[in-house]
C-alpha cells in the first residue's frame, strides 16, 4: 500500500476503480486532478467518484425517486462506518473518517438530487444558485476539507466556484435538458423572453431571446469565477495549480458557448486538448504568482446567501458538537418524506392497475 493510501485509508483497488471512473466519466476533472498533489488527488478522486455515482444513479436511472431514497440509505451507512460493499462507498467512507467531512455537505448534495427527482423548477436566479450550491458547491466545500482548509473566506470563494461551474453546466446543456423534459433556467427569465416552460420544452429553439438568456447565465458565472480566484491563495501551495486548472478549464466551456453564438440547443460546446493545455499554462502562471490576482477585498466578500449554510457547516466555530454534525436538515427530511410518499402512492396505483 502506498504512503498516500495509508494516510487516507482507501484500499488501492478501490482507488484504482475510482480513478478509472473519473477518467471515463469526467474528463475535465480528470485533467485538472492531475495537477493536484497525491495527498489531495487520491481522496479527491474518491470523492468525485462517489459524487459521480450518486449523480448517475439519479440522472440515468428509470426510477429517480427510489434512487434518491436508496442513496440516502447508502449515505447513512457511510456515516455509521458500515458502507455498502462497493468501491465508491468504501472509498468515500474512508475519506469521511480520515478527514472528518461534516455530514451536512454530502446531505446537501443529496437534497439537490432529490430536487432533481421531484422535477423541481426554479423561479429565479437565486433559486438556481440554491440548487447549484447543493449539487456543486457542496463538493467544493468537501474539497476544502480534504485540503485541511476551514477558513471561512476560502470556503466562500470555493462555493462561488462551485456555483459558477454549475451555471456553466446549465448554460451548456439547455438543449439536452429540454430533450429530457428538464429545465433549469430561471422561470422569470423565460417569462421575460415571452416563453412558458411548457412552450419551450415543446419546441426548444435557439432564438435570439434564448441565446440572450444563455449569455446572461454565463455572465452570472463569469462574475463568480472572478470572485473565486481570490480564495485560491488560501489553499495549500501545492494544490493551487489544480484548482486554477479546474476554474479555467470549466470557464473555457463558456468561452466556447460564446464563440458559437450562445446556441446550446442545436450544438454542444466542447473544448479540445490544445485548449486545455493552454489553460493549464495559464493556471501555472497564476499558481506561481506571475499574474496579478483580484483585489484583496474580493476575498472578504460575504458568501452567497445560497451557500452560507455550507460555509457554516465547515468553518471552525469552536463548538463542542460532533464533527459529523446533527445530520439531516428538516428541509431534507421533508423532501425525502415527500419522495417516499410519492413512491408509495405510485406503487399502490400500479398494483391497482
From TrEMBL:
Taxonomy, superkingdom: Bacteria
Any Pfam family matching the protein: SQS_PSY
A molecular-function term among this protein's GO annotations: transferase activity
Keywords of the record: Transferase
CDD domains listed in its UniProt record: Trans_IPPS_HH
PANTHER family: BIFUNCTIONAL LYCOPENE CYCLASE/PHYTOENE SYNTHASE (PTHR31480)
Protein name (database record): 15-cis-phytoene synthase
Gene coding for it: crtB
